[in-house]
């Protein structure tokens, strides 16, 4: 099939490379010329394991990139993989999706033959039917169901595992109001569904949109619930990880996403939970449980710092922050828990030194005023305390590096550092 993809960020680029891998001819469209140039050169604009190999193989043959929307006319299907950021009040800003839809509709005006537009971006229920579809009709001059149609196909990939999650998904969700778009999506994903036993959920547009939010809200709330239990565990001297291992054995609970600590960050959980809360509010429903999940998440960095305070005043003292990325395996610092932790340390007058194997440059843009070390050992040298915010594997191997600390106090927000003699070790929920 000939496919075009509007937006070449985390989702768009992964989708482009993976659909080319599945045998489709793909055109990536982005307003950013540097992204387009990199894609055409077979160079990955984002860091994801396996992506560089796929781009090197398919760029220039099955995968090309352009800044021109005119390219959509030579394709059968267009995915919208544009950002849906939060507004000040938490609600989603669909401005870029609408802008992309208008440019797409204008380009489709001249197109002969049928065309399917698939919303890949995470959007609140009603966006595809009530905003994208009418805009598309208006700008293309065509009628929905008469050659042109819309579908919603949410994405569940995780950063750091984007390619493997896409090529080996837990499920595929196809949302549409007519049979035509569903059968096009079936055909598009057939190379993937034929390979293995992938459950396919065929549903309506609003349901598909809601499934994405429900998925992320459930996972974020699961972590917050475990963090709440973990906070209670800590008060009673109970190890929350032992508790989590045991409750995770119950199939109804499941063992994943029970790692308690300093909380969830990243470009999606905070944004998507906020958007769902705002959408509920707009509809007159108070999503109290989701609001509580956010409150617990906001509280975890403060609890980490309060534990540090128990070991002495850090004003004027060197404090190492180990881990800056929102999770291991990525250089992404968006909504990283390291941000409130660093801010809290600065508010206390500490001399902060940050270390991360890959995310230093990105955090430097957020906090240019702090020191950055090029190894965990260098960050710990002379430090009066250390806090652990990201569970990078290399932190598990730290050992005599702690001996170089001025005062060997470690508050671990991710249960990654090994306890050892001579180290005052404090776990956030254990
Ligand atoms: N990042 C992730 O792990 C996941 C993201 N999502 C959702 O996917 C959507 C896209 O997110 P990301 O890929 O992370 O975004 P991103 O910010 O990484 O990339 C967006 C791309 O769109 C381009 N762009 C902006 N306006 C444009 C326009 N008018 N025309 C063409 N290109 C334009 C930008 O230059 C950029 O390259 C969001 O709704 C997000 O919630 C869903 C699942 C996973
Ligand atoms: O919509 C999205 O963008 C994506 O959001 C998450 O993926 P991602 O943000 O890449 O990262 P996760 O691995 O889910 O981790 C999110 C945060 O939760 C934290 N976390 C995760 C698991 C856990 O047990 N405890 C915990 O604190 C991580 O440290 C991280 O800060 C979802 O897992 C994806 O399915 C979804 O597609």
TrEMBL record:
Annotated active site: 268
Phosphoprotein as UniProt keyword: no
Highest rank taxon of the organism: Archaea
Name by which UniProt lists this protein: UDP-glucose 6-dehydrogenase
Catalytic activity from the UniProt record: UDP-alpha-D-glucose + 2 NAD(+) + H2O = UDP-alpha-D-glucuronate + 2 NADH + 3 H(+)
Binding site for NAD(+): 30, 84, 122, 159, 271, 334
GO BP: any one term: UDP-glucuronate biosynthetic process
InterPro entries, A to Z: 6-PGluconate_DH-like_C_sf, NAD(P)-bd_dom_sf, UDP-Glc/GDP-Man, UDP-Glc/GDP-Man_DH_C, UDP-Glc/GDP-Man_DH_C_sf, UDP-Glc/GDP-Man_DH_dimer, UDP-Glc/GDP-Man_DH_N, UDPGDh_AglM
Keyword vocabulary terms for this entry: NAD, Oxidoreductase
